[in-house]
Design brief:
2 copies of one chain form a homodimer. By secondary structure, chain A is of the alpha/beta class. The first copy, chain A, is built from 12 helices and 12 strands. Chain B binds a DNA duplex (30 and 30 nucleotides) through residues 6-8, 16-23, 25-26, 28-32, 35, 50-51, 53-60.
DNA sequence: CTTATTTTGTCTAAAAAGGCAGAATGTCCT
DNA sequence: AGGACATTCTGCCTTTTTAGACAAAATAAG
């Protein structure tokens, strides 16, 4: 078991003190050129890499952030959650931040003592972990949840407004019987979208119909069941707003299987702008949310907090209605 | 900024030495009952949690493992990759192992110096990271790649055999014109499945047809394109083996959209046993791979290696043909 | 009271960073 | 050129937190 070389080995080989090596490696203050070259050569020769554990111990903080995600299937497998993981993962790699992944039940205790910051990808109704992080004074960012009562930075989109835009679009096309397949009520985002749907109808004084509002959970299965339920109604809707593109695609499949046409017989609007929505059987009209930007913003805000340079911020990024081929005027 | 209490604070409050506190916390040797109680109370009162960074430094190894995944979209969003992440994440949580996630380009340098072990979820053809891990003597487990030339434990399924079973099933049903939608050639698993397809046909002396073998990349889009290509052939196949359930579901959608029936006009076999395959338009016949068991096994093997108790092992878990409704005899 | 056993505390090690003092070099003036 | 002073470098030592070897103290047994 070959031991990694440490800073002392480098110092000996270069004929300087440990401090000087540290200074060269961390570019912290000026070192005479000749010494710097010596040290750099020694570093290269010994393949020296600073021990991040020791570094973290001395500095009193680590360069590690934790990403906390709920483990529920529907949510975890949504394009949204995955793109957030992938986005944050990619950005952390380029910023040389270590990313600890906690896929967890929301009221489990996390061991947060060796983490420099935390991103909550979804804060569910049990906020125990979030509150604990704040109590421990760990810089924290929440994605897609506006947390007003805690010292937590938030990166959100306006889900309510986005949903409303989707439904308004259908209304403007003349639809009045607009159904809704929701993302459940575990996440704030899902709840906000439901709110947006209700508000849009209310603004035009269209009464809500219970049989038009079906609860999904972001899984394809739930969307299939929901779509079948809607299609079996005596008074079918003429349009459906679906809380995610994945679910919208599944709904379209169901409709096509029943021999109906999209958008001729049924208009559909999704939410996400999942890249595969461009290519499916019917290119999907949807609400785009800038997931990569959200991930990037979250990591950047957290980085600022961790370096003591930032303060709690609430950032709301814009959504956009993307019109493709899944809607037709009524 | 309240500082976390450290072991010294506990020692003072309990009126004992640091060592005694350490002994109580780590249950390492006998401590007089009265003292143990004192210490336990002090721990509770001060909410003492051992600083894992210091612990890792002293012990010379951390309780952290890294999960390395390629960032390519098709692979990353496959049910397979996700279930592996979720499985490993869940198991690490219950074993109190910290999970570092590296979503990375396969020839990027990883900083592995503060990691106790590594799991490679997919080893692509560039094996740089894998070789580096081995060179640094870091315990390593590869999932779904049989690495014979390096000291790496492997947890695999027999992809070749599984694929062969799928195609044999179609052959036994009387099909002779069997097409294949692959998962590309970035992963060993995908390549092995292609091998299995070829072997099954070769065993029955059925010549391979180039136009029947279409390369996908685990994305739904690629499956849609592939299915459309197959359906536009003059001599259509009577059955398709698809390298993942996600892609198989998309292929079924395409077939139904064209007004053909599954399984009446086209038999389909998938690979994965993705839970949503039970519920789609046509419950899917598929090859089940035990993803949760794979994840668990990988973590357990790694844990053994990290504790010096295990040795390099090659574990192959069984697949199983699950017959549902997407195939009919020819 | 001696020997054996249990329990406890002291001290060092682990790796790197940074304050501080001192060494080396440079600048300026006479 | 030589001395006074400033500036730039450098090394020593301490700090961070915990684990564990070892020796010392306390207790138990005979």
């Amino acid at each position: 078991m070959r031991k990694n070389s440490n800073i002392e080995d480098v110092a000996k080989l270069a004929g300087v003190s440990i401090s000087t090596v540290s200074r060269v490696v961390n570019k912290s203050s000026t070192v005479r050129a000749s010494n710097r070259i010596c040290v750099e050569q020694a570093v290269k020769k010994l393949k020296f890499k600073p021990n991040l554990i020791a570094k973290a111990l001395v500095k009193g903080k680590s360069n590690t952030i934790a990403l906390v995600m709920p483990r529920y299937e529907g949510i975890f497998y949504s394009y949204y959650a995955l793109e957030i993981i992938r986005g944050i993962g990619t950005i952390c790699e380029s910023l040389k931040i270590d990313l600890l992944l906690h896929i967890t039940h929301p009221n489990t205790n996390l061991n947060l003592s060796n983490v420099g910051g935390i991103i909550f990808a979804e804060v569910l109704s049990e906020r125990k972990q979030l509150e604990e992080a704040v109590a421990l004074n760990i810089p924290t960012v929440a994605i897609n949840n506006l947390i007003k009562d805690l010292a937590v930075s938030c990166v959100t989109i306006n889900n309510k407004q986005g949903a409303r835009e989707a439904v308004d679009y259908l209304l403007d096309l003349g639809h009045r019987d607009i159904a809704y397949i929701s993302g459940g009520n575990l996440t704030q985002a899902a709840k906000d979208r439901t709110q947006g749907y209700k508000l849009a109808l209310a603004a035009r004084k269209i009464p809500l119909r219970g049989e038009f509002m079906i609860e999904g959970d972001y899984s394809r299965k739930s969307a299939r069941d929901a779509a079948e339920k809607l299609l079996s109604l005596k008074n079918k809707p003429t349009a459906i707003f679906v809380a995610s593109d994945d679910m919208a695609q599944e709904a379209i499949s169901v409709i096509l299987e029943k021999g109906l046409r999209v958008p001729d017989d049924m208009s559909i609007v999704g939410f996400d702008d999942n890249p595969s929505s461009i290519y499916g059987a019917v290119p999907l009209t949807t609400i785009r949310q800038p997931l990569m930007v959200m991930a990037q913003t979250a990591v950047k805000e957290l980085d600022l907090l961790m370096n003591g340079e930032g303060k709690i911020s609430r950032i709301c990024l814009p959504t956009k209605l993307i019109i493709r081929d899944s809607c037709l005027p009524r």
